[in-house]
Amino acid sequence: LLPQPPKVLGLQLLTVMEEDRWKKRWVESKHQMDYGKFQLTAGKFYGDKEKDEGLQTSEDAKFYALSTRFKPFSNENETLVVQFSVKHEQGIDCGGGYVKLFPATLNQEDMHSESEYYIIFGPDICGFGNNKVQVILHYQGKYHENKKTIKCKVNTHLYTLIIRPNATYEVKIDNQKVVAGGLEEDWDFLPPRKIKDPYARKPRKWDERLQIEDPEDKKPEDWEDFEYIPDPEAKKPDDWNEAMDGEWEGPLIPNPKYKGQWKPRVIDNPNYQGEWIHPEIDNPKYKPDPTICRYYNISVLGLDLWQVKSGSIFDNFLLTNDEEFAEEVGNKTWGIRKDLEKQWRELYEEIEKRKQEEEARKKKEKEEEEKDDIWGTEEERNEEDPAEEPGNDRQMQEDDADRAFPGRNEEVLVDQKDEL
Ligand SMILES: *[C@@H]1O[C@H](CO)[C@@H](O)[C@H](O)[C@H]1NC(C)=O
Ligand SMILES: *[C@@H]1O[C@H](CO)[C@@H](O)[C@H](O)[C@H]1NC(C)=O
Ligand SMILES: *[C@@H]1O[C@H](CO)[C@@H](O)[C@H](O)[C@H]1NC(C)=O
Ligand SMILES: *[C@@H]1O[C@H](CO)[C@@H](O)[C@H](O)[C@H]1NC(C)=O
To answer: What is the pTM of this model?
Structure first.
């Protein structure tokens, strides 16, 4: 028996994209005139120069709005898997790294941040400690954010969202489960199942005191609790006239036998009943809804983003109803090239660091020379900015421009399934 081929929902992955081909498949919105441009590139470091080409944001401090359409489908009674990879090679400081799924009614040429969507999924980063994976789901005219925080990562990562027809979900990063559970529990789509019984009252005599003062404990007879006593040595002055001066009161002195305020000892309360727990009842406003996250005519995948520092590369988009297939595709794309990319990234970062150190050293030398040159004899200084010398960056860009775009390979075959 042959294994059943995976049922493919909608868009398949586009790991290898020819320059003109991606432009045919993706539509730039014209809602705003100054959206940032995407470019097709594998970036500064990668596992495979051709296979790791993806869509990169190329201009700083811009909004981006690009989308691609596929045959409409519904996830009624079906699992929905949304998967893609994103690499933030720029050291992202603030920006979105997520995808959006839209209904067929979206006008791609007019797509913008307020366009109605079904799902936002992926990392969202802005500032220190403010990075998370968004899973925002549309339900009855409202957008609901995931209540469980999912931390995201930088570098290149594979993001997978699974929504199952039995109202469970899972989020995976790099094919590892990071969170899973029930849709009802982890989003506030519905009112809670249980509420506190509004008629239940704590009994007036309910004893919640863990400890009490011992009622048996008595103050000893000889307990001195006067802090001050009249000075026994003091004498009423002979000329004290009670009629004129009032009753004589001698001065007070500290009581040498004073023991402090007496307090009964504290014991465990023998009648302690525990903390009163408000009984719960079924919430009359709660009604289960099997249509949560059931979407019809899912038909557009969009990159609708704001980025301060650009350079994120989106790749390996996949929509399917087969969890295992998605995992396998993840393994065969991101998975087999991640280690190579990591090695290259480390090398690249090392080179960048050395370059910066070298520049700092040169700058300091120049400053020293200028300090020594008090007579200004060295007037014709070399004005060339070391930063403008052709460096590795430029070299890499030239290589990119020279590159011959490859033909289709086996990964594009997957892409073709979408056209079936
Ligand atoms: C989904 O399942 C329900 C219940 O089994 C069935 O009535 C309905 O026709 C199914 N929908 C689709 C699109 O298969
Ligand atoms: C939901 O479906 C998944 C996959 O079929 C299964 O592993 C899981 O146990 C189900 N969960 C519930 C609560 O039905
Ligand atoms: C999906 O789109 C088709 C074609 O436009 C339309 O006839 C149908 O009503 C839509 N389905 C839903 C559930 O919106
Ligand atoms: C994906 O790769 C992991 C790690 O090598 C492996 O455990 C898993 O079985 C693979 N999954 C599929 C569906 O090939």
So the answer is: 0.73
